[in-house]
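Page 47, continued from p. 46.
Same chain as before, 190 aa.
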Amino acid sequence: QVNSKQGGSPCKEKRVVLLSPVGKIEISGCETGLHEIKLPKMSVLPSGAESSVACEVCEGAEEMPEPLQQCTAWLRAYFCEPAAMATLPVPAFHHPLLQRDSFTRQVLWTLLNDVKFGEAVSYKQLADLAGNSRAARAVGGAMRSNPIPIIIPCHRVIRSSGDTGSYGGGHLLKEWLLSHEKLQKEKLAR
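Result:
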C-alpha cells in the first residue's frame, strides 16, 4: 500500500498485466503515478518469431488511470516500435523510493535521463554520472531496488568487464533486453 503525500491516505492502486514478448509484466499504480513494474522470470529466451508477439493488456484494462495508460503505451512502443518512444511521455512515478531525496533516487533519475536506448554503462560510469565516482557498489544497490524496471533502464547497467552482471528479472531477461535494444537501434539507424 503506497501512501499519498498529502494526508497520508492510501491511494487507489490499480493493476494491469501486459502480455509482452518476454512474458506477463505486472504494472501497478494510481492516478498520481506508477508504483511498480514486476517482470516475469525467464527460464528460456524467446526466439525471433516469438519476440515479434504483440504487446496487449490482458488484465485490468477497464479503468486504467493515466499513468498506467502511459506506461502500457510506453512498454508497447519499447517492445514493438521503439521509434515511437521518443514521442511518448514517461509516466509519472509514485513510489516512496522515487519521492524522497537520496543517492538511490539520484542514480535512478540519472539512469532514466542520461542512458539512452541501445546504450550501456558500467556501475562506475553511472556512479560518476550521478555525482559520486566512488559509489559503484551503491549504484548496484540502487539497481536492485529499482521499482520501475525497463522504463528506468537498470538492465543497461553492466560490469566494467563487459559482463552483464545480475538483474532482478534474471540474467536471461537482461541479455534479451540488451540484444533487443541493440537490434532495434541498428534498424532505426538504417
